[in-house]
Automatic annotation (TrEMBL):
Coiled coil: none annotated. The lineage of its organism: Eukaryota, Viridiplantae, Streptophyta, Embryophyta, Tracheophyta. The keyword Cell cycle does not apply. It is found in: Nucleus. This is Protein LOL1. One of its GO terms (cellular component) is nucleus. It comes from Cardamine amara subsp. amara. Residues 34-58, 73-97, 111-134 form the Zinc finger LSD1-type domain. The keyword Manganese does not apply. Residues 1-21 have a biased composition (Pro residues). Residues 1-24 are annotated as: Disordered. Keywords: Nucleus. InterPro entries: LSD1-like, Znf_LSD1.
Length: 151
């Protein structure tokens, strides 16, 4: 049986809203997926590991600057996170080995106009915002490819 990504209610919308303009788009916190229950964990900059409040699993934080990617497991449909560049990813739930093709990877960028967080297929050159219709160019200076852990 597939394990849900977030078995508990999501936090209120303000917690998921993009960071306010003026602080460079970062709020001093980053996110990663719990290695135990697959919940989304928030942690402060500089942390080396995070203990999940739901299942008490300790998840190691990748080094600063490590680019993470996501894919959906072909066996149990769980969202998996892994270090970008890996050729395969083993699911911690069903142990299926998934091939990590760049064409199947997802990236994120904040809209250049309204700052809405947009998701797009990795490798795209621009992404059009569904809220304000602004076309944001995707490049090293404007995108955060999936999750990029900042120091």
């Amino acid at each position: 049986m597939p394990v849900p990504l977030a078995p508990y209610p999501s936090p209120p919308a303000p917690a998921l809203a993009p960071a306010p303009p003026g602080n460079g788009g970062t709020s001093g916190q980053s996110q990663l997926v719990c290695s135990g229950c697959r919940n989304l964990l928030m942690y402060p900059a500089g942390a080396t590991s995070v203990c999940c409040a739901v299942c008490n699993a300790v998840t190691a934080v990748p080094p600063p600057g490590t680019e993470m990617a996501q894919l959906v497991c072909g066996g149990c449909h769980t969202l998996l996170m892994y270090i970008r560049g890996a050729t395969s990813v083993q699911c911690s739930c069903c142990h299926t080995i998934n091939l990590a093709h760049e064409a199947n990877q997802v990236a994120h960028v904040h809209c250049g106009n309204c700052k809405m967080l947009l998701m797009y297929q990795y490798g795209a050159r621009t992404v059009k915002c569904a809220v304000c219709n602004f076309a944001t160019p995707v490049g090293a200076s404007t995108s955060t490819t999936d999750l990029k852990f900042n120091s």
